[in-house]
Amino acid sequence: MAHAHKLEIFRGLLKFKSNTQKIWGVLVFLTLVTAVEVALGIIKPHALTGNTILGMKILNWIFIILTLVKAYYIAWDFMHLRDEKSSLRRAVVWTAIFLIAYLTFILLVEGNYIYNVFKDGFLTWNF
Amino acid sequence: MDSTVTTGVEEGVWSGGDNRPLGASYGKMMMWFFILSDALTFSGFLAAYGFSRFKFIETWPIADEVFTHVPFFHGNYPMYYVAFMTFVLIMSSVTMVLAVDAGHKMKKNSVIWYMFLTIIGGAIFVGSQAWEWATFIRGDYGAVETKGGRILQFVNADTGERAALADFAVTLPEERAIHERKNGVWFYKEGSLPTYSVNEVLEGFKANSNIVIRTETINEAGEKEVLSRQESLAKLQNATQVVEGANLIHNEYGSRLFADFFFFITGFHGFHVFSGVMFNLIIFFNVALGTYEKRGHYEMVEKVGLYWHFVDLVWVFVFTFFYLV
Description:
The complex is a heterodimer.
Chain A: E1 8-9, E2 14-15, H1 19-43, H2 46-50, E3 52-53, E4 56-57, H3 58-78, H4 86-120
Antiparallel strand pairs in A: 1-2, 3-4
Helix pairs in contact in A: 1-3
Chain B: H1 26-55, H2 63-66, H3 80-104, H4 108-138, E1 143-146, E2 151-156, H5 165-168, H6 198-207, E3 211-218, E4 224-226, H7 229-236, E5 239-243, H8 256-289, H9 291-295, H10 299-324
Antiparallel strand pairs in B: 1-2, 1-5, 2-3, 3-4
Helix pairs in contact in B: 1-8, 1-10, 3-4, 3-10, 4-8, 8-10
């Protein structure tokens, strides 16, 4: 089994002495990211909610990117994907990424379309 | 004879797990593929949530204003408790990895100890989830629903703070025929009634000149639109019923779908956490009884650990898409 743990995170920027130490390091990192998310969610800085990139508020981009970062470290270090063979890793991760990206794209575009129908169509619903 | 293609005739193909495709044992690989399919189920839920939210993007409830409670404290603390729950779950994920790590080193007592902590963390999370549900179902301010199924909430015009129905509604000497088995359809029960009738809210509204209505619509500043006194009175004419708290059909927070998705997504996740705690318990007892010590390896701890981390992973996404975004 995975007795040989890969002990570096951040592309080798941080190398831990033992697996236990790496676990605590990742915990500190995840807690930090969560704290940043919650702080931003409570303060909601105007500069981030007022401006958009590609039609989405900057704040929401930050939330989603930080979530993916957290997901990466949970999967790679807690679920030991870092120590698995790349074939297993790819079979699991890419399948999920492609299917979820597809599903999300289809449903969000459709939801937006219905929003426009409700808005511009001859239909009163908000009364 | 050899009409079908076979490879590796020497090794048994389904021989009980001694051949390890992708470098993982049969059980571990299957756990991964189960997690993959479960992840797709959850993303189906979350994508459906996104669909409904995009559909009603201008009237969707603002999560910060819905989840503002912390047990044993009064006041407005948006997100703090959910953040605490997230931390508890991440923490119990950490004790789980530590258990797996101790398992690799064949340290039975550490595994027992870490599994125990993991179970406690899971139990705290499920308990918090239950509390969150109870608070959500009970509701706090109350609202009225219009003919079109939209929710009208009340705010204090001077302070801009939410006003509860109890703050301004009057009590009228109203009579209501009570449904009994002998005078109606026998298998219908008397439904539960809100504290105030629409009339009582309406009269109370007219008597208190500093109460105005907040609609579901979100304005440019990202806040819920507050109507003037005149507009409020006109809107109130359409009110058909008083809504307190939430169920699958009505909720005082806004769009009906919001409560539905809250119940389904956090419910489905909470069920996963609950079953995770059960699996952890079974493994905990197995470890304590020395089953894996005799077997020579603690792979079962690792497999259940994968499931437990997955539950954490899903929560990270639910937290973002339900509470933050």
